[in-house]
Amino acid sequence: MVDVAQTLLSGAIGGILATAFNAPFDVVKSRFQSQLPHTITGTKQHPPFYFFNILNLFLFFFKKKKGKQVKYRYTIQSLITIYKDEGARALYKGFAPKSIRMAVGGGVCMAAFELTCYFLPERGSRIPAATTTTEPIN
Question: Model-level pTM greater than 0.70?
Answer without folding.
Answer: no
